[in-house]
């Protein structure tokens, strides 16, 4: 995979459609007196696992723990339209994001939804472009020192408490603009 392709092509329209599809099918949730919608126990566990995935495993680069939320043969769809198979490839791709922005983190999920074996979570990914970004041809893009705040969405398909397939969405043009490389 061309590492630069991780940063190319948009996905916000698809992300909005995916979130709408999950939200529109959320029939297994029940309203409670606290004003929030609460799903089944499994839906709550999947969302809690996803919080742990982004807030601790991803943010702190605890790659050995990714198997707590992903199957060994997970298929991951990226914003540029390509997909990868297998947890090891997914870890390799995630590590790339930290090469040039080692402080990359996700600390909030403003929207979380679950319906059966599907979850949809929005997050805010932040970081600073402080180290050279390697390119496939062996060249690098020198750091700009610019910070980024990127709205993103993830849709996950779960089986027995782990994701079997994951769709990642963010506006790559906005990301590249914030990095100072667009």
TrEMBL record:
PANTHER family: ESTER CYCLASE, POLYKETIDE CYCLASE SNOAL-LIKE DOMAIN. This is Ester cyclase. One of its GO terms (biological process) is polyketide metabolic process. Coiled coil: none annotated. It comes from Umezawaea endophytica. Pfam families: SnoaL.
């Amino acid at each position: 995979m061309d590492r630069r392709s991780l940063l190319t092509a948009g996905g916000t329209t698809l992300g909005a459609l995916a979130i709408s599809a999950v939200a529109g099918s959320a029939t297994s949730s029940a309203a409670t007196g606290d004003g929030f919608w609460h799903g089944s126990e499994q839906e709550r566990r999947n969302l809690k696992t996803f919080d742990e995935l982004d807030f601790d495993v991803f943010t702190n680069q605890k790659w050995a723990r990714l198997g707590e939320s992903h199957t060994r043969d997970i298929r991951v769809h990226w914003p540029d339209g390509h997909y990868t198979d297998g947890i090891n490839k997914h870890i390799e791709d995630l590590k790339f994001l930290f090469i040039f922005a080692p402080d990359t983190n996700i600390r909030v999920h403003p929207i979380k939804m679950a319906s059966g074996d599907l979850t949809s979570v929005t997050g805010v990914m932040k970081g600073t472009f402080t180290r050279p970004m390697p390119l496939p041809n062996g060249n690098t893009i020198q750091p700009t020192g610019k910070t980024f705040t990127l709205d993103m969405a993830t849709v996950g398909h779960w089986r027995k408490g782990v994701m079997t397939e994951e769709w990642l969405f963010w506006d790559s043009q906005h990301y590249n603009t914030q990095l100072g490389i667009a």
